[in-house]
Amino acid sequence: MSKTKEIISVKNLVKKYDNFTAVNGIDFEVSKGEIFGLLGPNGAGKTTTVEILEGLRKPSSGYTEIDGLDVAKNTKEVKKIIGVQLQECSFFDKLNLFEIVEMFSVFYSSKPNIEKILDNVGLLEKRKSYYKTLSGGQKQRLSIAVALVNDPKVLFLDEPTTGLDPQARRNMWDLIAEIRNNGKTIIITTHYMEEAEKLCDRVAIIDSGQIVKIDTPKNLIQELIASGFKVEKKSQDATLEDVFINLTGKRLREN
Amino acid sequence: MKIYLIIAKSTIKMYFRRTQSLFWSLFFPVVMMLGIGFFGFGQFTPPKLGIVNYSNNYESTIFLEEFSKKDYLEIQLVSVSDIEKSILEGKIDSVMIIPSDFTLLSPSLEISYEKSKENIALEFYDISQMIISNILSEDKTEKKIMLKEQIFENEYQGYKGFLVPGIVALSIMQSGILGVVFTLISYKTQGVLKRLQATPIDPSHFLIGQMISRLLIIVIQTFVLFFIGIVILNIDIALGNVFAWINIIIFSVLGSILFLFIGLAISGASPNEDYAAPIANLITFPMMFLSGVFFDTDVLPGWLSNITNNLPLSPLVSSLRESALYGTSTLELLPELMTMIVWIIIAFIIGIKTFKWE
């Protein structure tokens, strides 16, 4: 992998709460145009790390930088150049999708083509629907649409596929890959390994607030195999999910 | 500026799309106004009878003694010169004048009342008739009271005129407090506020925008409710006095600010979301009944009315009522204005100090 310019760097990041350390000395760098995955079990510190980068939380110590800006000092400037999709966040229930995207465009002082943004995430037909009438997958896609109103350099996706059915999840993967192909850097947290393997250029595996390993998914797998690890040999070459998709198709179910 | 505009636009849109909010801020007060205003079951307080006794003979004394045994009535002696004023201001429902030639055998009485209180005056008449019959132990049809009536017609407009400004004030409180508490709680729990924090705008802009839109909505609501009172209940706002309307604008704006801030303080000060709604109810409920919305706080025991007259809703109720009924000048309502400003400052400080975004 050729060395490109780093757009994000995190140095010795620590976040302590009263009697609990959520993030305990994390270092990593993300290159421009990369999809970087933060993997780990629930409570490992993924979301805390991401929220510090997004300027939503103040770190106890350590340094974070996005596109040359110190996040702690230039929080507002950083917020202008990033797109954020939060875990468990919702929007105004009695506004339609067009109005929601329009409102956030004003908050970012940007004038995007709202129809085009909704079209990109496959929600153009729904532009007159209220947020609360959307399916889980549609809500996540709206969340991404809103994250794109300022044409951000970096997009943060916090568990974008949690709770989605296999069809909606595959659809989301396509969307994320497409956004990256348009030149954005993406940081994604997930606890679905299949998702990370499909999407991420590199992943950091986090546990108990610390990074256990950073590498490409391929290298990590090779390394494990080289260490003598053996999977109990499978007799089939397909998974139950393949069966499910094969039987139910890839068509999205949400209307 | 653009931020405030889009927030105001969105908030007002959401308000009109939410049937619940329309129900509580418009439909419910109107129903209450029409229900209580038309059927007049606002007379929770004991009927108040004023008495002028010109006779002072033995018979009138016995008659009055019997009257004072009826403890469901509130009886007081009044002077002749006060009759009209007390009746028109609603301090007394009816005044009974006992003429100097009063006798039990051929009784005659004069009863004065405001037109809308005719039923109460009739009740007094029936009671008098009954008392006289009882004293004489005779069938009451025989010694029928010779009745002279004096009817006043009121710019005070009876109970309807009293009630409408009260309900308008009550609605300002409800929309202010509940509007803020419920929206902020739902935005908080659903993560909307957190998402706003991730944008480059200062989240307080959002809060200010919300408050301004709510303020607009409440002032509009105030005018709609007064309008309904004028059209359907035929009340008259200070006989068309322009100052009445200026006062109504001033006090409804102040009242909105006050209760929006109280809403903010409640959302901030409650330990978590589950407590906010009960606390809001706990605060609004006593004021609904003790701040003079449905009846004058005069009927409360002195120590209690001293407290309730200083609750946040009381000055709003009395200033709107004074303005709407008599066109009282803003200057005369300065004490109410000051009380409200003190509460605004208190609520603002609590709100700002305790409000949390997450």
Q: What is the β-strand count of chain B?
A: 5
Main sheet of chain A?
Answer: 6 strands, mixed
Strand order of the largest sheet of chain A: 6-7-8-3-9-10
- Strand order, largest beta sheet of chain B: 2-1-3-4-5
Indicate the proportion of strand residues of chain B.
5-15%
> Which spans of chain B have pLDDT < 50 for at least 5 consecutive residues?
none
List SSEs of chain B in N-to-C order. HHEHEHEEHEHHHHHHHH
Largest sheet of chain B: 5 strands, mixed
Tally of DSSP helical segments of chain A:
9
Radius of gyration of chain A: 19 Å
Strand content of chain A: 25-35%
Radius of gyration of chain B: 25 Å
End-to-end gap of chain A: 42 Å
Separate helix tally of chain B:
13
Mean pLDDT level of chain B = 85
**N-to-C CA distance of chain B:** 26 Å
Structural class of chain B: alpha/beta
Helix content percent band of chain B: 55-70%
Q: What series of H and E elements makes up the topology of chain A?
A: EEEHEEHEHHHEHEHEEHH
Integer average pLDDT of chain A: 90
Can you give a write-up of this model?
The complex is a heterodimer of chains A (255) and B (358). Chain A is of the alpha/beta class and 255 residues long. Helices cover 34% and strands 25% of the residues of chain A. Chain A contains 9 helices and 10 strands. Chain B has 358 residues and is of the alpha/beta class. Helices cover 64% and strands 8% of the residues of chain B. Chain B contains 13 helices and 5 strands. Chain B has helices at residues 2-17, 19-39, 58-69, 83-88, 118-136, 158-189, 192-197, 203-232, 242-269, 273-290, 302-308, 313-326, 334-354, and strands at residues 48-53, 74-77, 94-98, 108-114, 146-152. Chain B has a 5-stranded mixed β-sheet. In chain B, helix 3 links the parallel strand 1 and strand 2 (74-77). The two termini of chain B are 26 Å apart. Classes of the chains: A alpha/beta (255), B alpha/beta (358). The A-B interface holds A 54-56, 76-77, 79-80, 84, 86, 88-95, 99, 102-104, 106-109, 146 and B 2-3, 6-7, 10, 13-14, 17-18, 186, 190-192, 194-201.
